Amino acid sequence: MASSAHRAIWLVTVVASLLVAGCQPQEETTIEDLEAATEEATEQKEEARQAQQELAQTKTEFQKTQQRDDYVQAKEQELVKADMALQQLRDKANQLQGPEQRDLTNKIDALQAKRDAAKEQLDEISKAEPANWEQQKSEVEKSFTELNQSVTQAQSAPAESGQPQPATQTDPETTQPQPDQSNQPQSEQSPQNQSQADPSQQQQSQSPQEQPQQ
Questions:
Q1: Residue 111 and residue 151 in contact, taking contact as beta carbons nearer than 8 Å
Q2: Is 14 inside any structural domain?
Q3: N or C: which end of the chain has fewer CB within 10 A?
């Protein structure tokens, strides 16, 4: 009997709880709630769009930065070659003397100035913004082209020792003076000189048989 009573009390308690819960009013969704939810969804969509745009911009900046750094590295290798050429020209100048040495030294000084100017422009590009570095590329290309051409011209210039060239020696056997035949007797003169003798003398030397008969 006691257990039955307890069960009955439990059932009554559960039913009462259900009735109380069912009697409470349900909250209705208002227009304000819909507008707030719509605005929140729009904000989330805009944030996603901005995130994608920033990601694309970061990717573009990375590519441009890589292109700039590769360009600067290639030009630095050209500067290394120019420095080696300048050192070779200095060694060459040390072997010269006089005006030739001064002329080559002046050329080396001019090349060094062009090299320093090109290096300064390259340093400016290496510090430029990735999106703007290509605007300075044309000036750098012009400076490096002039530098490389000047180095090539200086290297291809003929070497001059500055020493006077010795006089050309002549063979004494081939430069013996010819004897003067003007004072030699007619019989010792060459046939060519005899053929150029006075025609009147040749006529007198003709035999009587060759003279016309009277």
A1: yes
A2: no
A3: C
- Whether residue 82 is contained in a domain is answered as yes
| Cα torsion through 157, 159, 160, 166, rounded to 10 | -130
Non-local (6+) Cβ contacts of 112 within 8 A are 86
CA dihedral 136, 137, 142, 147 (to 10 degrees): 100
Asked if residue 114 lies in contact with residue 146, where contact means CB atoms within 8 angstroms, the answer is: yes
List b or e across 8-27, with b for residues whose CB sees 16 or more CB atoms inside 10 angstroms: eeeeeeeeeeeeeeeeeeee
Per the structure block, which two tokens stand in for 82? 């120019």
pLDDT tens by residue, 141-161: 999 999 999 999 998 876 544
Please state, in angstroms and rounded to a whole number, the distance separating the CA atoms of residues 107 and 86: 10
Q: How many domains does the chain have?
A: 1
Pick from 178, 179, 206, 181: which is nearest to 192 by CA? Answer: 181
Instruction: Report how far residue 72's alpha carbon sits from residue 167's, in angstroms, rounded to the nearest whole number.
Output: 55
Domain assignment of residue 34, yes or no = no
Residue 34 CA, distance from chain mean position: 65
Full domain range(s) for residue 138 = 43-156
Task: Confirm whether pTM is higher than 0.70.
Answer: no
Instruction: Retrieve residue 129's tokens.
Output: 């913004």
